[in-house]
Amino acid sequence: MTDVTETETLQPVRPGGESNGATRERNEREILEAAERVFARFGYRGASVQAIAEEAGLPKSNVLYYMGNKRGLYVRLLERMMARWNALLDDISVEDDPAEVLEAFIRSKMQLSRQHPEGSRLFAAEILGGAPFLQGYLRGELREWVRTRARIFEQWAERGLMDPVDPVWLIFLIWSATQHYADFEAQVLGIMGQDEISDADVERITRFLTQVILKGCGVRPSGGG
Amino acid sequence: MTDVTETETLQPVRPGGESNGATRERNEREILEAAERVFARFGYRGASVQAIAEEAGLPKSNVLYYMGNKRGLYVRLLERMMARWNALLDDISVEDDPAEVLEAFIRSKMQLSRQHPEGSRLFAAEILGGAPFLQGYLRGELREWVRTRARIFEQWAERGLMDPVDPVWLIFLIWSATQHYADFEAQVLGIMGQDEISDADVERITRFLTQVILKGCGVRPSGGG
DNA sequence: ATACATCCTGACCATTTGGTCAACAATCGT
DNA sequence: ACGATTGTTGACCAAATGGTCAGGATGTAT
């Protein structure tokens, strides 16, 4: 904080203009995004409020003014990520086409990892550390989410629309395979010798995963798509 | 450290007995294992030497006496994990049976995750944080490892022994699917409503993954095994 | 202009951080 | 028996940690 000699003399938050809670909104957004990056990189304990503040270009006191404390900030980020998560593949039914559902599942999960890589990594770091903040969510909401889908997969198998594979492990397989490209991005890039994963790469990977997983559990590809 | 009132008055390291570098060896092992757990749980920055020392049941000074500093300790753990890694599936050839090789790959990777879950998580945390210490390894050794295997997969495809899928993504798929059960153990347990993953679970998961992935990329299962 | 609420932040605090060091204890080689 | 090597650890340090707070700056409503 001693040397604030950033690019220019930081303006006094632009006096005129935005009214209402516009300032709050903007600053909170800024802080949340910075915090997501820092928590994702260093984990809960490894992230310092100071580092988050610097990432957001604000004094530490300001971050704490908006967020109360480190713990609250972290929980808020987790909840935001869970909300994105829950919006995913919210309603499927036995009547749906397995191929379409599985492909949509893979595709939307892949996009979530791509659109919110920091959030994905934040979540991963939380689980890696034993999910101290998410135990309840895992054993509650998420477990139900999985159960519901699993039941449908089983019914599909009974109807001969797919092989009788364990549906829970199938869900884990899809999660891991897609999550991988966010969480292990550094590894993927290192091995591919690139410095970013392009949209084209994502599309190819999505197709690859869809093809292998659908075929792997005996789902006939749908005509469309 | 102030209250060392552990179970009993800690013995003065058992005077008689071990000679040679036995003391060093034992203490180093103890420290490495403790450190692996702590680093895996909290990441590099989040882990404190103090926490590692407590986990090992030693004073902080003693940990630093053996390991020099935090950084060195961490690097040593990473190297140990890479060594285990490199021992995996070291030599395969185009002449081998794809089904056998792939199954052995899945199985041995699964076992590595199971036998060294803390090491797996340590590695995961390192990658998650952008692989600050492993950039070289990823872009060097590991990349070559992947290239070599990928070339063989391609030749199998050319010979019609499997579908012409992208071999690198196939390797990522196997990595992620197996690694998942170590890294996301907390999630897996939460959803399955268990408090540990049994040997039987591991066997079933291994079979599931083998079945789905082999079928998914058009590899005919081998007769044996 | 005045009152009121929101926003901003440097100074400060107790605690913890990684690391050093000196003094002491145990063991080994001879 | 004795010197040398190896092991042990509390005391200590500067820096960083999460968090508080007082006091000023800014904005809105009347």
Main sheet makeup of chain A: none
The CATH topology of the largest domain in chain A is what? Tetracycline Repressor, domain 2
- CATH class of the largest domain in chain A reads Mainly Alpha
Instruction: Describe the global form of chain A.
Output: elongated
Q: Spans of chain A with pLDDT under 50 lasting ≥5 residues?
A: 1-19
Can you tell me the CATH superfamily of the largest domain in chain A? Tetracycline Repressor, domain 2
Task: Tell me how many strands of chain A there are.
Answer: 0
Mean of all residue-level pLDDT scores of chain A: 90
Features:
homodimer; 225 residues; mainly alpha; Arc Repressor Mutant, subunit A; 10 helices; DNA-binding; HTH-type_TetR-like_transc_reg (chains A, B); HTH_TetR (chains A, B); DNA-binding (chains A, B)
Q: In words, what does this structure look like?
A:
The structure is a homodimer of 225-residue chains. Chain A contains ten helices and no strands. Chain A folds into two domains: 22-76, Arc Repressor Mutant, subunit A; 88-216, Orthogonal Bundle (Tetracycline Repressor, domain 2). With 225 residues, the first copy, chain A, is an all-alpha fold. In chain A, helix 1 packs across helix 2 (49-56), helix 1 packs across helix 4 and helix 1 (22-46) runs parallel beside helix 6 (117-128). At the A-B interface, helix 1, helix 6, helix 7, helix 8 and helix 9 of A face helix 1, helix 6, helix 7, helix 8 and helix 9 of B. The structure holds a DNA duplex (30 and 30 nucleotides).
